[in-house]
Amino acid sequence: MHHALITGANRGLGLEHTRQLLERGWHVTAAVRNPDAADALKALPVGEGKLDIVAYDATDLSSPAKLAKTVTTPIDLLFANAGMAASSTRSFGSAANADMQTEFTVNAIAPIALAEAFADQVAASEMKVIALQSSRMGSIADNDSGHGYGYRGSKAALNAMGKSLSLDLKDKGIVVIILHPGWVRTDMGGPNGQLTVTESVEGQLDLIARAYKQPAMSGRFFHVSGQDLPW
Ligand SMILES: NC(=O)c1ccc[n+]([C@@H]2O[C@H](COP(=O)([O-])OP(=O)(O)OC[C@H]3O[C@@H](n4cnc5c(N)ncnc54)[C@H](OP(=O)(O)O)[C@@H]3O)[C@@H](O)[C@H]2O)c1
């Protein structure tokens, strides 16, 4: 049975990844801030799969290492999905505030802490994939509208560090892919998003399945449609 560890699995894209992987018979370790309140997650049909719900807070950089003491089996897919977009860091004039530090911790630093805590378990698995949930907003080349200081900056930092991860973990046989899920109708994406969570997650899981077979996809930044995005 393949095993995925997914952060931010209680709603939005993370919840749908969990749902679709359980449907495919995977074991999913769903890492969430508040397991007691993860009602949608607990209501998912498990079928032939297996669901474990564990506590994880991306603002606490010791959280991945603590988790690695209880989650000790190989991890085929480590999915750093949890993310935030603070409205207080959007606009020039008042963007540089403490929320931006939190945004960088959650969106950029925590995924690296996860990779550091779990790289050996990923390397011990069959698939050996680390997926980083980035955003096209983190593309410097694609920025033609300004604003979004904290979100853009933290996702650009994630992209830069994801590239390093791909090179540093190559000898372990680990493939690191950096993903833009599309503009998706979630709490973060809002009601006008172009994709449903189902469509986005199907596309992302296809890309992950391809990455497992094609290590040349490691260290690249992909739109959910499969196109390479500019840094
Ligand atoms: N939706 C889009 O259009 C879009 C586009 C590009 C990229 N993305 C990226 O996709 C990822 C998922 O976004 P989404 O659209 O599914 O957003 P969402 O519905 O707002 O879900 C965000 C998830 O991240 C979790 N999270 C936030 N801060 C956390 C923390 N400190 N510790 C642990 N978990 C935390 C949330 O947990 P709580 O419920 O506890 O808050 C929630 O599970 C994010 O990285 C986002 O940047 C989304």
What can you tell me about this protein's structure?
The protein is α/β, with parallel strands linked by helices. It has one domain: Rossmann fold, CATH 3.40.50.720. It has helices spanning 12-23, 39-42, 63-67, 98-123, 149-168, 197-213, and strands spanning 3-7, 27-32, 50-55, 77-80, 129-133, 175-180, 220-223. The chain has a seven-stranded parallel β-sheet, sandwiched between helices. β6, α6 (197-213) and β7 form a beta-alpha-beta unit. α1 crosses α6 and α4 (98-123) packs parallel to α5 (149-168). The longest helix is centred in the middle third of the chain and has 26 residues, at 98-123. It is globular. The structure holds NADP nicotinamide-adenine-dinucleotide phosphate. The site of NADP nicotinamide-adenine-dinucleotide phosphate (NAP) has 29 residues, from α1.
Largest sheet: 7 strands, parallel
* Helix and strand pattern: EHEHEHEHEHEHE
Range of strand content: 15-25%
The third-level CATH topology is Rossmann fold
CATH class category: Alpha Beta
CATH architecture: 3-Layer(aba) Sandwich
Q: Give the CATH H-level superfamily.
A: NAD(P)-binding Rossmann-like Domain
Question: What proportion of the residues is helical, as a percent range?
Answer: 25-40%
Offer a quick outline of the entry.
With about 230 residues, the protein is an alpha/beta fold.
Helices and strands in order:
Blueprint: E1 3-7, H1 12-23, E2 27-32, H2 39-42, E3 50-55, H3 63-67, E4 77-80, H4 98-123, E5 129-133, H5 149-168, E6 175-180, H6 197-213, E7 220-223
Parallel strand pairs: 1-2, 1-4, 2-3, 4-5, 5-6, 6-7
Helix pairs in contact: 1-6, 4-5
